[in-house]
Design a protein that fits this description.
Blueprint lengths: L23 H18 L2 H15 L8 E3 L2 E6 L8 E5 L1 H4 L7 E5 H8 L4 E7 L10 E7 L6 E7 L4 E2 L5 E5 L2 E6 L2 E5 L15 E6 L8 E5 L6 E7 L6 E7 L5 E7 L2 E4 L7 E5 L2 E5 L4 E3 L2 E3 L4 E5 H5 L6 E4 L5 E8 L4 E7 L2 E8 L5 E4 L8 E6 L10 E8 L2 E9 L4 E6 L9 E9 L5 E9 L10 E4 L14 H8 L10 E5 L9 H5 L7 H16 L8 E6 L1 H12 L6 E5 L18 H4 L5 H7 L4 H4 L8 E7 L8 H12 L5 E6 L10 H20 L3
Parallel strand pairs: 34-35, 34-36, 36-37, 37-38, 38-39
Antiparallel strand pairs: 1-2, 2-3, 3-4, 5-6, 6-7, 7-8, 7-9, 10-11, 11-12, 12-13, 14-15, 15-16, 16-17, 18-19, 19-22, 20-21, 22-23, 24-25, 25-26, 26-27, 28-29, 29-30, 30-31, 32-33, 33-35
Helix pairs in contact: 2-6, 2-14, 8-9
Length: 695
C-alpha cells in the first residue's frame, strides 16, 4: 500500500495545542477521553480480571531478585501492602531459606506520606567502602512521578536515615557516579546550556561534599547535539580510574580514560561498545572493523590487555564470533572467568571462557530449547564466592527459576516463581515467516495443545523491532491470565505470538542494521509477514488477529494501523511514537535520530514520512478498532504523540478509537502494581472484546 507524501508545514498541525502536557485544556481533553474509554471497558467482569492480574503483580511468592553488596543481599519489593515499595536486605543464609528474614531499610510509602510526594523507586548507587568495612553510604534514586527525571539523595545504611547535609541532587535526568566518599561526578541540569538537544546532561562537574552545583568544577563536556555525557569512577582495588563517555547518539560514542590530568581517547570505532574490567579492554564492534590488517566481524567480542592497547598493541583476541544463527547478547565477569550469554535462533546458550586457558570455552548445560537463560556474576570480588554466578531461567510456560552456581561445579535452584495459570493446557512452538525480501523471520506461538487450525482463534501478536532489543521467551502470569486462559463462547483460548522482527537484536547488530532509517519498513514488513503466516497456517483470521506494542513497538503497531489495516481486527498502541515529523522536538526524541533519521533534513524526511502514522491517516481507509494509551508523566516519549493521533482519528470521524492516559507512571505507563494491573487489563479487555465482537 502506498501513501501520499506529507508536505504540510509543522505549524499547520491543528493538534499542536495537545503538546502542552500539563495545560488545562489538554488535560481536560484527556479526562474526557479517559471517561469515555473507562465507560466502554470497565465492567464488573473487567474488574475481576484486573484483580487477577494484580494478584500476579502483588504475589508474595514471586522471586525477590537481589543484588549482593558486601555481606548483604538487597531487594526492592512491591506488593499489596507496599504499593510504592520497600527497600530491604538480608544475609545469604536467610535469602536461601524458604522464608527469608529481611531488614527494612526504606519504606517508600511512608516516605511519600511524610514528604507529600508520590516517590517512585528508581534504584540505588552504592559507595564502595574500604576493604573489610561494611557498606554504609548509598545514593537513592527517587522519581517524583515515575518519569526518567529523578532526585539523588544520600542515605546512611547504619542509621537508616538520609544524611543530614549530605548529597542531594534536585530532580532532573541526571547521570551521577561516586568519585570517592566525599565527592560525586554529577551530570545534571545546571541551567541554560547544560543539557543536550536530547534533554540529557552535556557536562559533568566535580561536586565535593558541602559544595555548590552552580560553582562546581567542570570535568567533562560534550557537544550540545550529542546525546549525553557521563563520567564514572572505577573503584576496583588496584585498577582505580576515571572513565568518561561522550554518547554521540544511541549507537556511537567516544570513551576516554583519565591520564596525567587529561582525557585520553580509547581509539576504537565509535560504533563499538567498550568496557573495562580490571586489566582487560573489551570491545564489541557493531559493524565490521579492520585493524592492523585483521577484520573483526560485527557482533564479535574482542579482548586485549588495556596497558598493552594503550602502548600501541592491537593483538585482540576474538573470544566470540557470530554466525548466521548465533548472536552475543551480554557478558559478565566472575573473578577468573568470562560468561557469555548468547542466542541461537532466539534460544539461549551460555559459554564460559577461561583467560588462563587462552580463552577456551565450555558450554554451560542449563539452557533448554525455546527458553531464555541468563548467567551473570554474583560478586567477582568476593574472597570466597568470586566465581559464583546467578542463573535466571524462564520460558513462556515455565515459571522463572533463580539458580546459583560456581564455575567448575554445579548450580542449584534457590527460588522459583509460582504458577499463575494452567500451563499444561498450552504448547510453545517456533515458526518462521518469510518477509517480502525473502528473509526468514522467527516467531513464538503459545496456544492450546488442541489448537484447531481453522482460523477461528483470537490471537494477539506482539513485537518491538528496534534499538537492537531482543524479544525472548519469558514466563508471564499477566499474559497467562489476561489472554491465554480467556475463552470465547465456543471454548477457544487466546493465542499469544511474539515476533522477532528486524530492528531487534535477536541475530546481532546486523539484524538491527537491516531496519534502520530508510530501511525501517523491513521491520514492518516482517511483522506483516508473521501476521500473514498466522492466517495462512490457519491459526487465526484478520478479524480475530490483534496486535500490541509499546514505545518503539507503539510505532510498529501504528504502522500496522496505517499501512496494513487489512491484516488486523484490533490494535493496542502504548506510549507510542507516532508523529515522526516532530518526534525530535518532543521529550527525549532527539536522541533517536540514529534509529529513525532526522525529519528536519529534507532528504531524510523523504523516507521518515513513509513510516509516520500520524501523517499516513487517510479518509478512504477502513481502520481496525484502536486503543491508544500513554502516561502524562512519561518524559521519554511523552504523551503528546498518542494524544494527537487519537484526536486526529476522532476528528476524521472514525468511531472505533479509544484513548487512555494514566496521569502518572512515566514511560512504563504505571508507577505501581495497581496502575500496571489497570494498564494491562485495559489493553487485554479492549483487544479481546474488539476481536470477539463485543465492543
Amino acid at each position: 500500500m502506498t501513501h501520499p507524501m506529507e508536505t504540510t508545514a509543522t505549524t499547520d498541525d491543528p493538534f499542536l495545542w495537545l503538546e502542552d502536557i500539563y495545560g488545562d485544556r489538554p488535560l481536560e481533553w484527556v479526562r474526557t477521553e479517559n471517561a469515555l474509554t473507562e465507560d466502554a471497558l470497565v465492567t464488573s467482569a473487567f474488574e475481576g480480571r484486573e484483580r487477577g492480574i494484580l494478584e500476579v503483580l502483588d504475589s508474595t511468592d514471586r522471586i525477590p531478585m537481589a543484588g549482593k553488596h558486601g555481606e548483604h543481599y538487597y531487594n526492592f519489593w512491591r506488593d499489596a501492602e507496599h504499593r510504592q515499595g520497600i527497600w530491604r536486605r538480608t544475609t545469604w543464609d536467610s535469602y536461601a531459606s524458604e522464608d527469608p528474614v529481611w531488614d527494612l531499610l526504606l519504606d517508600v510509602d511512608a516516605l511519600s506520606a511524610a514528604e507529600g510526594v508520590e516517590w517512585v523507586w528508581s534504584g540505588a548507587l552504592f559507595l564502595r567502602p574500604e576493604k573489610g568495612d561494611p557498606h554504609q553510604r548509598v545514593l537513592l534514586v527517587l522519581s517524583p512521578d515515575g518519569g526518567d527525571a529523578a532526585r539523588y539523595r544520600e542515605f546512611d545504611l547504619e542509621s537508616l536515615t538520609f544524611v543530614e547535609g549530605g548529597f542531594d541532587i534536585p530532580t532532573a535526568k541526571s547521570r551521577i557516579s561516586w568519585a570517592g566518599p566525599d565527592t560525586l561526578y554529577v551530570g545534571t541540569d545546571f541551567g541554560p546550556g547544560s543539557l543536550t538537544s536530547s534533554s540529557y546532561p552535556r557536562m559533568v562537574r566535580i561536586l565535593p561534599r558541602g559544595g555548590d552545583l552552580d560553582t562546581a568544577e567542570q570535568y567533562f563536556e560534550v557537544d550540545e547535539n550529542h546525546m549525553t555525557a557521563l563520567v564514572l569512577h572505577d573503584s576496583t582495588p588496584g585498577f582505580e580510574r576515571d572513565i568518561a563517555v561522550d554518547s554521540i547518539d544511541f549507537y556511537t560514542r567516544r570513551t576516554y580514560l583519565r591520564q596525567n590530568g587529561a582525557w585520553r581517547l580509547i581509539g576504537v570505532p565509535e560504533d563499538a561498545s567498550v568496557s573495562l574490567h580490571r586489566e582487560w579492554l573489551i570491545v564489541r564492534p557493531r559493524t565490521d572493523w579492520t585493524d592492523n590488517g585483521i577484520t573483526y566481524g560485527a557482533g564479535s567480542l574482542l579482548v586485549v590487555r588495556l596497558d598493552s592497547f594503550l602502548a600501541g598493541d592491537r593483538s585482540f583476541v576474538s573470544v566470540f564470533e557470530p554466525d548466521p544463527a548465533t548472536s552475543l547478547q551480554s557478558w559478565s565477569w566472575t573473578r577468573d572467568y568470562l560468561l557469555l550469554n548468547l542466542l541461537h535462533d532466539v534460544s539461549s546458550e551460555i559459554r564460559i571462557l577461561d583467560p588462563a586457558r587462552n580463552w577456551e570455552s565450555d558450554i554451560l548445560d542449563a539452557c533448554p530449547p525455546l527458553h531464555s537463560v541468563d548467567a551473570y556474576a554474583v560478586d567477582d570480588e568476593d574472597d570466597d564466592a568470586g566465581n559464583d554466578y546467578w542463573l535466571i531461567a524462564t520460558g513462556f510456560l515455565t515459571p522463572s527459576t533463580l539458580h546459583r552456581g560456581t564455575i567448575g561445579g554445579d548450580h542449584t535452584a534457590i527460588k522459583s516463581s509460582p504458577s499463575y495459570f494452567d500451563e499444561d493446557r498450552f504448547a510453545v512452538e517456533q515458526h518462521f515467516a518469510v518477509s517480502s525480501d525473502g528473509t526468514r523471520v522467527p516467531y513464538f506461538q503459545i496456544g492450546a495443545k488442541d489448537l484447531k487450525l481453522d482460523g477461528d482463534n483470537p490471537t494477539l501478536l506482539s513485537g518491538y523491532g528496534g534499538f537492537e532489543h531482543s524479544m525472548t521467551p519469558a514466563y508471564s502470569g499477566v499474559i497467562g491470565r489476561g489472554w491465554l486462559e480467556r475463552t470465547t463462547e465456543s471454548g477457544r483460548h487466546g493465542v499469544y505470538v511474539l515476533a522477532n522482527i528486524r530492528g531487534g537484536g535477536e541475530y546481532g547488530p546486523q539484524w538491527h542494521h537491516a531496519a534502520l532509517h530508510a530501511n525501517r519498513h523491513r521491520a514492518y514488513e516482517d511483522f506483516a509477514a508473521i501476521a500473514g503466516d498466522l492466517v495462512e497456517r490457519g491459526v487465526t483470521s484478520p478479524a480475530l488477529l490483534g496486535c500490541t506494542g509499546r514505545s518503539n513497538g507503539g510505532l510498529l503497531v501504528g504502522n500496522m494501523l496505517t499501512t496494513y489495516p487489512h491484516l488486523f481486527g484490533a490494535i493496542s498502541c502504548g506510549v507510542p511514537l507516532l508523529d515522526m515529523r516532530r518526534y525530535t522536538k518532543l521529550s527525549a526524541g532527539f536522541s533517536w535520530i540514529a534509529e529513525y533519521g532526522d525529519p528536519d533534513k529534507p532528504e531524510e524526511w523523504e523516507y521518515v514520512q513513509t513510516f509516520s502514522p500520524y501523517h499516513l491517516l487517510r479518509d478512504d481507509v477502513a481502520y481496525p478498532k484502536t486503543l491508544i494509551w500513554t502516561a502524562t508523566s512519561d518524559d521519554r516519549v511523552g504523551p503528546v504523540q498518542a494524544r494527537k493521533m487519537a484526536a486526529r482519528m476522532k476528528e476524521m470521524g472514525l468511531q472505533n478509537v479509544w484513548f487512555h492516559e494514566a496521569l502518572e507512571g512515566g514511560h512504563a505507563g504505571a508507577a505501581d502494581n495497581r496502575q500496571a494491573a489497570r494498564m494491562h487489563a485495559m489493553s487485554f479487555e479492549f483487544l479481546w472484546r474488539a476481536l470477539t465482537g463485543s465492543l
